[in-house]
């Protein structure tokens, strides 16, 4: 089984460096084009099911892919982006300046500390673990599928799959990128085959 982990296309908040979190920010024009290029690039990676975050930016990306492959979209709220509470809509610099104590605590102990009104790393991990288990249950671990989600959530999903030794920061860095993970139902082992493929976004 191959699992194609896909980050949504670009939004205006991505350009502005704002934390989106649970805010339902739509794709911008570039993001919509990226979704189309992604869908074309996925033609060599056929899937019948697309598990997607329910936020607009992810669903629009999933819909572009589904339209090209006639795949079924399965909305999954657990794939939504990490909730950053009061920090959403701010840049990291603004967060550090406006919430110095909370930010410092979060940097030092992200597993237990959380942004005001947001999720801790431990909570995110448990949510992603449940999502992975549900995806394997629904597919039997025997069919190639796509998962459309968000940067921080996708990094956590990879950590759930392959273990904490994997450097999360190196997994998802670009909008509309594809990270490919292989899963064996016999051994129940996940293996990262390719990280952050954006070759499909190059037009010439």
From TrEMBL:
Keyword Zinc: no
Pfam families (alphabetical): His_Phos_1
PROSITE patterns: PG_MUTASE
Protein origin, superkingdom: Bacteria
Keyword Membrane among UniProt keywords: no
Annotated InterPro entries: 6Pfruct_kin, His_Pase_superF_clade-1, His_PPase_superfam, PG/BPGM_mutase_AS, PGM_Phosphatase
Name of the featured protein: Histidine phosphatase family protein
The organism of origin for this protein: Lacrimispora defluvii
